[in-house]
Automatic annotation (TrEMBL):
GO terms for cellular component: extracellular space. GO terms for molecular function: serine-type endopeptidase activity. It holds the Pfam family CUB. Residues 6-116, 177-285 form the CUB domain. Disulfide bonds join C146-C173. It comes from Periophthalmus magnuspinnatus. The keyword Mitochondrion does not apply. InterPro entries: CUB_dom (IPR000859), Sperma_CUB_dom_sf (IPR035914), Sushi/SCR/CCP_sf (IPR035976), Sushi_SCR_CCP_dom (IPR000436). Residues 118-175 form the Sushi domain. Keywords: Disulfide bond, Hydrolase, Protease, Serine protease, Sushi. This is CUB and Sushi multiple domains 1a.
């Protein structure tokens, strides 16, 4: 059910509340009220998919009326683009009040409504990551891991708490700027990969292997003659094993041979243009599973 009327009592188990005329801009001088009513003992979850109001002058007030009809709790007054990703009620009735003034407008809002009795909303899955755990009921926990080459921003599982909120925010999987890499195999990505890398980077990865390492390039695109990836096996970047730039996919590189059991990669980007960067896998010989330590 999609609600675009300016006044409505909402009792369906799920649906969407849209500002008038959404996704086009809403009108001036609006004063709208939506009352969302679920079964006593249940909770209402609001998920803000889109939110764009004229800052300071147009606003949406979200109130919890389920347990406090005479003195409702106000979750917040929201304007501009500043809105939480989701809100869960304490009682079984919520009230949304939308008001616009006589001048500028915005795109408005798209709010998903879901009524649940004993669970949290789907927390999502990090980009370039995986979720472990399919139960979102009160007391359950969900953990996350990242694809090869990415580092999880927070290793602690999230827990669905009694207030129907997760204990903390969804973590992210990030391609970081440098670090120590130990292992038989692994992946090294430019920061932000597959998005464009930032400007003014100076990143160094140290790969500790035994009996050499073989680097294989799957993606390579740097600003030619301005951004560089240098590879050395003795820490001397003045005379590297390879110094790479541009967008031609390099052949495989072997380093860390002849008893030099560390290989270093240094990525330098300047202050101007950037591109996709690189995706490199490596293989060594005898060390155990991959562990990445970041300074």
């Amino acid at each position: 059910m999609h609600l675009v009327s300016c006044f409505f009592n909402f009792t369906a188990p799920s649906g969407t509340v849209l500002s008038p005329n959404y996704p086009e801009e809403y009108g001036n001088n609006l004063n709208c009220v939506w009352l969302i009513i679920s079964e006593p003992g249940s909770r209402i979850h609001l998920l803000f998919s889109d939110f764009d109001l004229e800052p300071q002058f147009d606003w949406l007030v979200v109130k919890d009326e389920g347990n406090y009809i005479l003195h409702p709790t106000t979750f917040g007054t929201f304007s501009g683009k500043d809105v939480p990703s989701q809100i869960a009620s304490n009682g079984h009735i919520m009230r949304l009040e939308f008001q616009s003034d006589h001048s500028n407008t915005g795109k408005g809002f798209n709010i998903s409504v879901k009524m649940e009795t004993d669970s949290c909303l789907d927390p999502g899955i990090p980009v370039n990551g995986r979720r472990h755990g399919s139960s979102f009921s009160i007391g359950s926990q969900v953990s996350f891991t990242c694809d090869a080459g990415y580092t999880l921003s927070d290793q602690e599982p999230i827990v669905c708490e009694q207030n129907h909120q997760w204990s903390h925010a969804l973590p992210s999987c990030d391609a970081l700027c440098g670090g120590y890499v130990y292992g038989k195999t692994g992946t090294i990505l430019s920061p932000g990969f597959p998005d464009f890398y930032p400007n003014s980077l100076n990143c160094t990865w140290t790969v500790e292997v035994s009996h050499g390492v073989h680097l294989v390039f799957h993606t390579f695109h740097l600003e030619e003659n301005h951004d560089y990836l240098s590879i050395t096996e003795d820490g001397n970047f003045l005379v590297p094993v390879a110094r790479l730039t541009g967008s031609v996919l390099p052949p495989g590189v072997k380093a860390g041979l002849y008893g030099n059991f560390t290989t270093q990669l240094r990525f330098i980007s300047d202050f101007s243009m950037s591109y996709e960067g690189f995706n490199i896998t490596f293989s060594g010989n005898i060390l155990k599973g991959l562990i990445i330590f970041i300074h």
